[in-house]
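User: Teach me something about this protein's shape.
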Amino acid sequence: MQQQKSYLVPGLLKLGLLNGNQPIYILILNQIRDIKEVSLQMHSCLQTINAFNPFIWVICNQQTLRLEISEVKQILNQLCKNIPLQQLQRIEKLIFVSDSIQLQQIVNVIPNVWSTVLTNKIHHVLRLNQLVNHNIELTQNQIDFLSRINNTYQEEIPFYGRDISEYPIGQSGIPEFLEAILQYYERHDDYLKKQGVFRLSGSIQEEQKLIQQFQIRNYSVLDQYDSDVVSSVFKNVLCQLKQPIFPFEMYHMLKETQINVSKEQLLEMFQVFFAYMPAVNRKTTKRIAELLFHVADYESENMMGLQNLSIVFAPCFLRPEVTDFSDIQGAKVVVHHFNLLIQNVEYFLQEIKRDRNSFSQKLQS
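Assistant: First, the predicted structure itself:
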């Protein structure tokens, strides 16, 4: 059984099995520093990684520490606050690894709102090696990490979750992998005419394989992958940037800006942000905006005009530092303003260039 693995945040070890499209998430309670952070990361994973397939949770401590029922109750209550019941309905198994608690104790601390969904899905094993009975095979590296406290889990830096400037930057001034993806779309223009383009997700296994190639900067394999897989990587890497392309403050300012604000006022606000954005962020925005304009030209075929594309891509550029999943209206306002930004992105870049030329002329005089 092949696996892709990454240590996402302290306390969450993600294993994406390559058989059956079934992700497995291992919560290591003694490694958790911030329960809310882990539960929000868990929610993000469930949204973006094979979002319609069943998944498995495993809850444990590193094996030299006893797993206490109070710990179990605390983590379940926090997860219950941050993970919608609709997502939990996809769970196939919730497995606890402990030789110090019993199954009935676990059942008794399951949050009431989850009890119906988890009926007959809660399992208990005494040791890590018994996970194989649930078709979970750990690598030796993972077993070593889960078996000893303070043992360092050595993984390569995950491809998702970096700052945009941390990716290798190409001659065009944007990350190499983004340049490769944009060139891929130029070669596969028919995909951009496909109905619902950018809304569909590709195979999680193929996505993971493509990420492996990107890790070693092998972009020549792109044409071997389905367009939906390429689009999944394209969207996920943008959505999961450590710092979004636009600063967190911009999301909050746009959310508080009335939807009927004058175009001139909104453009002036955007212009200030663009002037202070790093060059790689500006250039990336311009290149992706050009792609979205091109896709919108095929609206009669793909049903994806700029409004629909803004719904898909606004979260790739703008997000709050702490996600509030109940703030639907605020998100809609941000999408509306993002649409205007994309329509006028060339204006900001030209203004910045003119301002810099004017400044240079003043220095020369």
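Now, about its shape. Residues 345-364 form the longest helix (20 residues). Confidence is low (pLDDT under 50) at residues 1-9, 15-19, 151-155, 355-365. If you'd like, I can walk through any region in more detail.
User: That's plenty for now, thanks!
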